[in-house]
Amino acid sequence: MGFRIAQVDAFTDKAFAGNPAGVCILTERVSDSWMQNMAKEMNLAETAFLLKESGGYNLRWFTPTIEVELCGHATLAAAHTLWELGYLPENESAHFSSLSGPLHAHRSGAWIELDFPAERESESTCPDALAKGLGTQFTYVGKNRFDYLVVVESEQLVRGLTPNMAMLRQVPERGVIVTAASDSDEFDFVSRFFAPSVGIDEDPVTGSAHCCLAPYWANLLGKSELVAYQASERGGIVRMRLENDRVILAGKAVTIFTGETSPGAHGAKSIDIKAESKTPSHA
Question: 9: buried, middle or exposed (CB in 10 Å: 19+, 13-18, 0-12)?
Answer without folding.
Answer: buried
